[in-house]
Design a protein that fits this description.
This protein is of the alpha/beta class. It has a domain of 95 residues: Pectate Lyase C-like (3 Solenoid), CATH 2.160.20.10. Helices cover 30% and strands 28% of the residues. A three-stranded parallel beta sheet has the order 1-3-6, covered by helices on one side. A hairpin with a 2-residue loop joins strand 8 and strand 9. The longest helix is centred in the first third of the chain and has 18 residues. It is elongated.
Length: 149
């Protein structure tokens, strides 16, 4: 009986609070949101393709392709950017993929970018955000710092 009364009391309090809840958004909030959206521009990536296989990558899930992926990214960046393509296959990388300005990392259909399990491969530590706090930690799997587009 006591449990029923407690449940009724809590339910009544919740319903009363919902009835008296104030509106938390205004028309001005939606106008501001629209203004923010209108300021966002899509990146302008060069119309050039760089297939990682042309840089020595092997998509068998066994070979470490970190060097080949980095070569493709560096080559693309030195030629004004473009799309670095991982075609169908399993592309193992023992360490992070570090992007540069003007690069679109494109993982094709039926392609898997597989990251190695050893923590030491994700050193040195890099500055990043973790739950809103800036920290130095292991590199994220895909990392970009001070880049544009």
């Amino acid at each position: 009986m006591r449990t029923h009364l407690y449940f009724l009391l809590v339910t009544t309090m919740l319903l009363c609070s919902l009835v008296h809840a104030e509106q938390t958004t205004t028309d001005d909030d939606w106008i501001e949101a629209e203004n923010i959206i209108n300021q966002i521009t899509l990146p302008k990536i060069a119309d050039a393709n760089f297939n990682i296989k042309n840089f020595g990558a092997v998509g068998d899930g066994k070979h470490d392709n970190r060097s080949a992926i980095a070569k493709a990214i560096n080559h693309a960046a030195s030629h004004g950017g473009g799309k670095v393509i991982l075609p169908a296959g399993i592309w193992l990388t023992n360490g992070p993929v570090i992007l540069k300005s003007g690069i679109n990392l494109h993982i094709s259909e039926n392609a898997t970018l597989l990251f190695g399990p050893k923590a030491k491969d994700y050193l040195p530590v890099v500055k990043q955000r973790w739950e809103g706090t800036e920290v130095y930690a292991y590199s994220p799997l895909i990392y970009a710092n001070q880049v544009r587009q």
